[in-house]
Design brief:
With 355 residues, this protein is α/β, with parallel strands linked by helices. It has 14 helices and 13 strands.
């Protein structure tokens, strides 16, 4: 009998963020110990097929379907397969009595930067219930663990910090020629601080230097950011790509000057690891978990100070010895973040709960 079922309902064909974490973590877990509830019909041994209309890229209706399915159908699946625990890569789990869960918490950004929308309602009402009812909450960083304890009052004894990792097959050094652009990965939400990144770019006088923004477009924010780039005279120096394949992501990470993460807050900052794996320097804000993850492998900047962001960009462009130092430090830090290590910690947690 398995120790737990892995909730794969969030897995999609175009994964970002939590979807990438879910995909890569389950790939390292023992399939006999933790079978996957699989919406994609993959070849993982022992996987259990589930419906494929719950994935996030299908929009708000899919999110609602997934939440209903989690409360109504998922308990039946757990009982039918004789699994005592649900392992969920995000804070979604049945709230019925008798259902035990271990969930992964990534951040509380909707509470830190509240906006009246369905995500705020979800994070302020449903997520706390899941976290308090879970047997254990796996946190992707110490910063996230502190937030969950401080904002929601989840007891410290329930919180376990686990390191995330990176996919060594998809992310590696290709020895490509560096091109004159900085790379920004992620959504266009306000906390990503893209407006200040654009203003920092405007202070780089070399007109050949560009910033490429790779992440899902959002009708609430993307048009305003594009309009800002036009107003700053940067239209020809910005590229906006809604999604790229793993292969293209690898090429971009290997050919950019540096990865730029100027967010006001990140619960982890997975792209920083991806950049390190590609021997790419990182410019990161000094907020949230980014200093914890980046360490001495990047330049840390105050995300509210445009001059600090632009100065770091110039340093990367002009100082080859600095670039080499950051790359070497990044190679050293990578040993701390491996999916196989994360998976062993998760399996140990499940075995302790079973015991």
């Amino acid at each position: 009998m398995s120790l737990a079922l892995f909730n794969g309902s969030y897995l999609g064909r175009c994964p970002t963020g939590i979807g990438v974490v879910a995909r890569d973590l389950v790939g390292e877990l023992d399939p006999e110990m933790v079978p996957l509830l699989d919406p994609l019909g993959g070849s993982r041994p022992g996987s259990i097929p589930i419906r494929n209309d719950l994935m996030p890229e299908l929009g708000m209706r899919a999110h609602i379907r997934r939440l209903i399915w989690t409360q109504t159908k998922l308990p039946e699946i757990l009982r039918k397969n004789g699994s005592p625990i649900l392992l969920s890569p995000l804070p979604e789990a049945p709230l019925l009595k008798g259902t035990r869960s271990v969930v992964i918490a990534h951040d509380l950004l909707p509470l830190r930067y509240p906006r009246v929308n369905p995500l705020l309602l979800y994070t302020a009402s449903y997520v706390p219930l899941v976290l308090h009812s879970a047997s254990k909450v796996l946190c992707n960083s110490e910063a996230t663990a502190r937030e969950i304890n401080r904002f929601l009052g989840v007891p410290i004894r329930k919180l376990i910090t686990i390191p995330l990792g990176f996919n060594k097959l998809n992310l590696r050094h290709l020895k490509l020629k560096r091109k004159p652009f900085f790379l920004v990965l992620g959504r266009h939400n306000p906390h990503k601080n893209i407006l200040r990144v654009l203003k920092a770019l405007s202070r780089i006088k070399n007109k050949e230097i560009e910033v490429w923004f790779v992440g899902p477009h959002d009708r609430r924010y993307t048009p305003k950011l594009k309009k800002c780039s036009e107003d700053l005279g940067l239209s020809s120096r910005c590229r906006w790509l809604p999604w790229v394949s793993d292969e293209e992501r690898l090429r971009l990470l290997n050919s950019c000057q540096a990865l730029l993460i100027a967010s006001f807050w990140e619960g982890f900052g997975l792209p920083a690891l991806e950049a390190m794996a590609c021997h790419t320097p990182v410019i990161a804000s000094d907020a949230g978990a980014l200093p914890e993850v980046v360490g001495n492998a990047g330049l840390l900047v105050n995300p509210f100070k445009i001059d600090e962001i632009s100065s770091a960009m110039r340093d990367i462009l002009l100082d080859s010895s600095l670039r080499n130092k950051l790359v070497a430090n990044g190679e050293d830090r990578l040993s701390l973040y491996r999916w196989d290590r994360s998976a062993r910690i998760v399996e140990d947690v499940l075995q302790c709960l079973e015991g």
